[in-house]
Design goal:
43% of the residues lie in helices and 16% in strands. The chain is of the alpha/beta class.
Length: 352
């Protein structure tokens, strides 16, 4: 099975039962002949199966918000056969909103997820049974994209802007950019849209005048005549955007699978930095972006930002920045200790 997409759910499997029997011998059968027959019967239990027989790949259910460039290494890993090399098969489940993705992994509806690190911090602070095992995308990539008629922050004041939630990374990013123009969240009419796909649709329909979009949706909107009014990376320099988290119980029972997945993801990151054309093709296949748009996204993500860390490490300064904003927003009273947020041992084993 290759990389497949599904709605929120789990994947199952099946097994086979083999049975063998030996007939009853008559006592008058010659002793030597009987010994040879018994030896042949014993050998039949240990002779290897037919050439080319393979063990079915182990299944992993992996949750994401919606396909964007933040999941780029996953798409490359599938396209280049890196999951198959590790003996695993990955089924992607789309959660559509950060809370849904958290719910999926905390209930083991998905074994592993890639979600906003900020959402994962909040979940862990509230005692949900998940833990981060790897970084994924290490730059805050959100752009504030505005529709026709909006040329400045002054024009946008009082207008509708679509965010993920009023307390997630999109709200933090908008607040940071607005502050540079002496504005705050209360200066806009906030509309909620759980992912970039929904927010892009809202902007294109004219139902909102601004939207926080991840790649490649910001670049697609710009190509259609909308304008990028600001980018979070201009005002927030240290960030951990998305992180890979696991269901604690599942990971404890399936540690080798977590390691195999991270090893395949690591190969995807390395390959992405050195094979632009193949990386672009992988993103186009999953997001249906125009190849020229996907190529621009590669230039930013792999080229300018180097957003994917081949060492799979969660940045302590990025964590601290997120914690500062979350406490300042009143989202959590305090950031949990690093040992509660993050277990680097899985990635360390994958990189050996």
């Amino acid at each position: 099975m290759g990389l497949s997409f599904a709605s929120y759910g789990t994947a199952g499997g099946s097994g086979f039962l083999a049975q063998n029997s030996v007939g009853v011998m008559q006592l008058r059968f010659p002793v030597r002949a009987l010994a040879l027959v018994l030896l042949a019967a014993m050998v039949s239990f240990v002779v290897p199966g037919p050439a080319g027989a393979q063990t079915a790949p182990a299944e992993i259910t992996f949750g994401i918000l919606t396909p964007t460039s933040a999941e780029w290494p996953l798409f490359i890993a599938e396209a280049q056969g890196f999951y198959k090399e590790e003996g695993i098969s990955v089924t992607i489940v789309q959660g559509s909103s950060p809370p849904n993705v958290i719910n999926m992994v905390s209930t083991n509806g998905a074994n592993m997820v890639d979600n906003g690190c900020d959402s994962e911090f909040v979940a862990i602070a509230h005692g949900l049974p998940i833990k981060i095992v790897s970084s994924m995308f290490n730059v805050n990539p959100y752009s504030l994209v505005v529709g026709p008629g909006i040329k400045s922050w002054t024009d946008l004041k009082g207008k509708s802007v679509m965010l993920g939630t009023k307390q997630d990374v999109t709200a933090i990013a908008l607040n940071s950019m607005a502050s540079a123009h002496n504005l705050k969240l209360d200066d806009f009419q906030i509309v909620i849209g759980g992912n970039s796909t929904a927010r892009f649709a809202g902007l294109q329909s004219g139902n909102v005048q601004g939207a926080m979009l991840a790649q490649p949706f910001d670049l697609i909107a710009e190509s259609k005549g909308d304008m990028i009014l600001g980018t979070a990376s201009d005002t927030i320099k240290d960030w951990a955007f998305t992180c890979v988290a696991v269901n604690n119980d599942w990971a404890a029972k399936n540690r080798p699978l977590v390691v195999k997945f991270l090893r395949a993801m690591h190969k995807g990151i390395q390959y992405g930095y050195t094979h632009k054309d193949a990386a672009v093709a992988a993103l186009v296949a999953q997001t249906h972006a125009d190849p020229a748009i996907a190529a621009r996204a590669w230039d930013i993500d792999f080229g300018k930002w180097k957003a994917f860390d081949p060492n799979l490490k969660l940045s302590p300064t990025g964590v601290a920045t997120i914690g500062k904003y979350q406490v300042g927003f009143g989202i959590i009273p305090a950031l949990p200790p690093m040992k509660d947020l993050y277990d680097p041992s899985f990635a360390a084993e994958a990189l050996k």
